[in-house]
Amino acid sequence: GVAMTTPMFTYLEQQLERRFNLFKLWNHPLDSHFLQENAQSIRAVVGCTKSGADACLIDSFPALEIVATFSVGLDKIDLPKCMEKGIRVVNTPDVLTDDVADAAIGLAMAVSRRISESDRFVRSGSWTKDRFGLATRFNGKSVGILGLGRIGSAIAKRAEAFGCLIGYSARSEKHHSGYKYFPSVLDLAANSQILFVSCALTEETRHIVNREVINALGPNGILINVGRGAHVDESELVSALLEGRLGGAGLDVFENEPHVPEQLFELGNVVLLPHVGTDTIETSIAMANLVISNLEAHFRNEPLITPVI
Ligand code: 8YV
């Protein structure tokens, strides 16, 4: 049996149902009755960023062998717990990289060229009464990338094509990247006009974009977050935007999704997306297929395709 934590993608649900005995946990309270009946037969959990696999869920299924997450991010999985219990973990890297990088560039473009704001200007009928005013150029900007992994590198490659100067911060210098390495995030922000957040969320990267980093990016700087909401101290971000200490922000992720600080709704220099960085039909199908082929490999005792542990 395979247990899915929450609805994530109908195609994935259907494909899992065709292959396995699928338990849709959102239809069952995880009470002693359900667990007594089914816990022994649940060998796999499929989770996602909305609902992953915490210690409590993992402990509920004593026969659990593998956790598959419909995401590249692992922040909703209790990895130490899985290690300790010998539970395998798989995610969906690579197949989503290009779409997340596209979304990041789209956000940077939307903020700098005021695309969402100008669309609202036309729809509201303001164009017949008023001029829209000027935006800021995106091409040629100094770009800072926090985390030069798969997604960060794909953002860098795109920004390079727009003539941007690329700098990055990461745990270690990537000597072959050809981009300028900043050991300090503060220095990176001070030297960037647009800062992209594309690292994994860990204890070290929680609130890595804090008040000082926001101030270093400054009143003309733009912050783009396609990582996790918790990478940014959100209340600091809101006050910096309200006080004009930061130029603008493009955000796909928030600290308390789906709740977004309402003060942001009034700001024209902010573009807000409902965590859709990977949500194209092509990438969603590829992610679902990767979840399924990992589970099939596991149950056939074959090597996992994208193992984390
Ligand atoms: C979402 C993501 O998890 O891959 C990640 O880490 O944040 C996204 O892929 C996905 O859309 C499912 O909610």
From TrEMBL:
Protein name from the UniProt record: Hydroxyphenylpyruvate reductase
Species in which this protein is naturally found: Citrullus colocynthis (colocynth)
Assigned keywords, A-Z: Oxidoreductase
PANTHER family attached to this UniProt entry: 2-HYDROXYACID DEHYDROGENASE-RELATED (PTHR10996), GLYOXYLATE_HYDROXYPYRUVATE REDUCTASE A HPR2-LIKE (PTHR10996:SF235)
Pfam family, one: 2-Hacid_dh
Domain D-isomer specific 2-hydroxyacid dehydrogenase NAD-binding residue range list: 105-277
Domain D-isomer specific 2-hydroxyacid dehydrogenase catalytic, first and last residues per copy: 22-308
The keyword Oxidoreductase belongs to this UniProt entry's keyword annotation: yes
Family: Belongs to the D-isomer specific 2-hydroxyacid dehydrogenase family.
Stretches of the chain forming a coiled coil according to its record: none
